[in-house]
């Protein structure tokens, strides 16, 4: 091969490498810009971003129940208060602060810690509860939504069911909490 042909081959190889580097650089730049945009949105509009994320989570949950015939599964954990709830271990905490003689036990979980499993659930649906490795199926017999702030357990009086699960919708303090009353499924 002549020196001129060799030089021409090297020039073409350099141009191909340069074009590849430019394409990778552009892709990297787009990814960085997308990440910065998302980060900025989370910092500037956190409640709105959380609400959009929660809406997507709820839509996916509804789709899984309707199209895959999945039964939602909630895990029951410790009894306690805000500290136990904030452990965020994927379980519902039986809330001491909700205890009243005229209400069933209320188990709560943050939406981003497994509590969002109840958000797509509707009256008449079934849900599985696991506690200590034992899973039991329950019917949703009552649903109540209350504001997140300035509400007492008085708003829950009359809530039906042997057990109640509670979580919050995604978003700021202006979106409600959801309580679902459950009764065990009776075979036969």
Q: Could you walk me through the main structural features you see in this protein, from its secondary elements to its overall organization?
A:
It is a single chain. This protein has 188 residues and is α/β, with parallel strands linked by helices. The protein has three helices and seven strands, in the order H-H-E-H-E-E-E-E-E-E. The protein has a seven-stranded mixed barrel with strand order 1-2-3-6-7-5-4. It is elongated. The termini are far apart. The model has no long low-confidence stretch (mean pLDDT 82).
Tally the helices: what do you get? 3
Record the strand order, biggest sheet: 1-2-3-6-7-5-4
Mean pLDDT: 82
Secondary structure category: alpha/beta
Low-confidence stretches: none
Order of helices and strands: HHEHEEEEEE
Roughly how many Å apart are the termini? 88 Å
Largest β sheet strand count, sense and barrel closure: 7 strands, mixed, barrel
Shape: elongated
Keywords:
alpha/beta, 7 strands, about 190 residues, seven-stranded mixed barrel, elongated, about 35% helix, single chain
Quick structural summary:
By secondary structure, the chain is α/β, with parallel strands linked by helices. The chain is 36% helix and 26% strand. The longest helix is centred in the first third of the chain and has 42 residues, at 3-44.
Outline the secondary-structure elements.
Blueprint: H1 3-44, H2 46-67, E1 73-80, H3 82-85, E2 92-95, E3 106-108, E4 126-131, E5 134-146, E6 163-168, E7 177-184
Parallel strand pairs: 1-2, 1-4, 3-6
Antiparallel strand pairs: 2-3, 4-5, 5-7, 6-7
Helix pairs in contact: 1-2
């Amino acid at each position: 091969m002549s020196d001129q042909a060799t030089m021409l081959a090297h020039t073409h190889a350099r141009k191909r490498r340069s074009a590849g580097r430019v394409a990778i650089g552009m892709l990297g730049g787009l990814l960085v810009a997308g990440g910065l945009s998302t980060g900025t949105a989370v910092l500037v509009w956190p409640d709105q971003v959380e609400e959009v994320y929660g809406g997507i989570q709820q839509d996916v949950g509804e789709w899984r129940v309707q199209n895959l015939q999945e039964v939602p599964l909630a895990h029951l954990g410790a009894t306690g208060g805000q500290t136990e709830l904030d452990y965020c271990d994927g379980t519902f905490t039986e809330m001491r602060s909700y205890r009243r003689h005229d209400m069933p036990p209320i188990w709560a979980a943050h939406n981003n810690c497994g509590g969002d499993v109840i958000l797509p659930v509707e009256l008449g649906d079934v849900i599985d509860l696991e506690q200590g490795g034992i899973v039991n199926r329950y019917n949703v017999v009552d649903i109540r939504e209350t504001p997140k702030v300035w509400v007492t357990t008085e708003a829950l009086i009359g809530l039906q069911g042997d057990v109640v699960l509670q979580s919050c919708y995604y978003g700021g303090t202006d979106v409600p909490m959801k309580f679902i009353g459950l009764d065990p499924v009776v075979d036969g």
